[in-house]
Amino acid sequence: MPVTISTHVLDAQRGRPAAGMAVRLERDGEPVAEGHTGDDGRITGWPSDTAGVYRLVFDTGAVAPFFPEVVLTFRVTEPGEHHHVPLLLSPFAYSTYRGS
């Protein structure tokens, strides 16, 4: 079963999803996928069958100009597990966690 990676971006200043944000997925430094968040701020179902170090690169400049880009790096060790990595973004801060 392949790894499934998803993300969800929330604009904390406006209290709503960050729709239309460009996001790129990389594994071990190489691009794997790219897309834009939907109206619900989500990108779901990016598959990969390889363990490794992944990066989600968010183009956040339109929502938080102080942070033109946010990069979240995480390790996948169990290729059969789902990995949900949300981003909570505000003008001068951001946070993340491993979701479900």
What portion of the residues fall into strands of 2 or more residues?
over 45%
Please summarize the sheet with the most strands.
6 strands, mixed
Rg, rounded, reads 13 Å
> Shape, please?
globular
Taking the alpha carbons of the first and last residues, their distance comes to 17 Å
Order of helices and strands: EEEEEEEEEE
Helix content: under 10%
Mean pLDDT: 93
Structural class: mainly beta
DSSP strand tally: 10
Please, how many helices? 0
Q: Show unreliable segments.
A: none
What does this structure look like?
- With 100 residues, the protein is mostly beta strands.
- The protein contains no helices and 10 strands.
- It has strands at residues 3-11, 16-17, 22-27, 30-36, 42-48, 52-59, 69-76, 82-84, 87-90, 93-96.
- The relative contact order is 0.29.
Q: What is the compact description of this entry?
A:
With 100 residues, this protein is mainly β. The chain is built from no helices and ten strands.
Outline the fold blueprint:
Blueprint: E1 3-11, E2 16-17, E3 22-27, E4 30-36, E5 42-48, E6 52-59, E7 69-76, E8 82-84, E9 87-90, E10 93-96
Parallel strand pairs: 1-8, 1-9
Antiparallel strand pairs: 1-2, 1-5, 3-4, 3-6, 6-7, 9-10
For this entry, give a set of tags.
10 strands; six-stranded mixed beta sheet; mainly beta; four-stranded antiparallel beta sheet; 100 residues; globular; single chain
